[in-house]
Amino acid sequence: MKKITAIIMAVVMIAAAFAGCGSNKTDSANKNTGKKTTDATVSEVKTATKGKLTMVTNAEFPPYEYKEGDKIIGIDAEVADLIAKKLGLELEIADVDFDSIIPGVQTGKYDMGMAGMTVTDERKQKVNFSDSYATGVQSIIVKDGGSIKSIDDLKGKKIGTQQGTTGYIYASDTPENGGYGEKNVIGYQNGALAVEALKSGKIDCVIIDNEPAKAYVAATTGLKILDTPYTKEQYAICFSKDNSELQTLVNNALNELKDSGELQKVVDKYIKAD
Ligand code: GLN
Q1: Best residue for ligand 1 mutational test, from 101, 135, 165 (most atoms within 8 Å of Cβ)
Q2: Structural domain boundaries of the chain?
Q3: What does the pLDDT look like over 55-97, one tens digit per residue?
Q4: Atom 8 in ligand 1: which residue has the minimum CA distance?
Q5: How far apart are alpha carbons 117 and 237 in whole angstroms?
Q6: 115 pocket-lining for ligand 1 (C-beta < 6 Å)
Q7: What is the CB-side half-sphere exposure of residue 53 using CA atoms within 13 A?
Q8: Residue 175 preceded by cis peptide, ω within 30
Q9: Which atom of ligand 1 lies closest to the CA of 164?
Q10: Which fold does the domain 42-133+236-270 belong to in CATH?
Q11: What one-character DSSP code corresponds to residue 252?
Q12: 117 in contact with ligand 1, CB cutoff 6 A
């Protein structure tokens, strides 16, 4: 009798082990903890305001974030909204200058920064990043028929960028490092102001990420785009180093959106294939 019970127990245990394997597989998106965003732990997640997920951005970066009337829309805004819904939180968006995003996340004033933000080693010292959800490269916007015909004409020209961005960092570097020197580069508060300065002839070109470059050129007559030699950048969401629990949950939600195709759907809504 004892023997039969032992055999039955063994069969049950093996079956349970297999069932466990199966459920782990369906949960493959959540590599970090295995926790699904629907797990009970989600409701306990710490955020700046209870029940809300506060994303901070700079809403002058179409198609990732920009204003339509009073509303902030774009790829980042919509993806953040889908993430918030998965976590059972209400999305709130704060709009600040780009170089105020990381300090605001570091102090915990905002839960996460999402602003077409490139992952760099320097930023990694200050904040944690999610997995990447998009890529970008820097482009140069010039006046159609202006004095800059190719990237070789940039030396000694007045270059506009957005302050605190990778465009500023690359362009203001020394010529030995592929830049144009700090004194030739102006950091504007945002992309719209840089493009405005180009239109009115205060500067000769604007270095900015490719998708916003396309959006600004499409919305303005007399401008065109040149490519730069700068390599592909990875965009990711940043978090305070003190809230890795939120980082994990958001990352899991982001990966679920990637796997389900919902992320791509949002991208396709805003970026039409060339
Ligand atoms: N990708 C660039 C950076 O992270 C620009 C981002 C932005 O201006 N919103 O520096």
Answers
A1: 165
A2: 42-133+236-270, 136-233
A3: 999 999 999 999 999 999 999 999 999 999 999 999 999 999 9
A4: 165
A5: 7
A6: yes
A7: 28
A8: no
A9: 10
A10: D-Maltodextrin-Binding Protein; domain 2 (3.40.190)
A11: H
A12: yes
Q: Which atom from ligand 1 is nearest to the alpha carbon of 58? A: 9
Helix H or strand E segment including 199: helix 191-199
Q: Helices 262-270 & 244-260, crossing angle to 10 degrees?
A: 80
Using the atom order of ligand 1, give the atom closest to the CA of residue 61: 9
- pLDDT of 27 higher than 70: no
Say if residues 53 and 89 touch (Cβ distance below 8 Å).
yes
Query: Scanning the structure block, which residue is given the tokens 């009798």?
Result: 1
**Ligand 1 within 6 A of 165 CB?**
yes
Mutate to test the pocket of ligand 1, among 57, 162, 207 (most ligand atoms within 8 A of CB): 162
Q: Residue 215 contacts by C-beta under 8 Å, 6 or more apart in sequence?
A: 62, 63, 66
C-alpha span between 203 and 19 (Å, rounded): 64
Q: What is the pLDDT of residues 119-157, one digit of tens each?
A: 999 999 999 999 999 999 999 999 998 889 999 999 999
Closest C-alpha residue for ligand 1 atom 10: 165
Residue 144, both tokens: 């159609």
Whole-prediction pTM? 0.84
Atom nearest to 120 CA in ligand 1: 4
Give the tokens for residue 123: 């930023």
Answer CATH for 136-233 from 3.40.50.720, 3.30.460.80, 3.40.190.10, 1.10.260.40: 3.40.190.10
Token pair recorded at residue 239: 């978090």
Identity (one letter) of the amino acid at 220?
Answer: T
Helices 191-199, 210-219: axis angle to 10 degrees equals 50
Q: Hey, do 42-133+236-270 and 136-233 end up sharing a CATH topology, with the first three levels equal?
A: yes
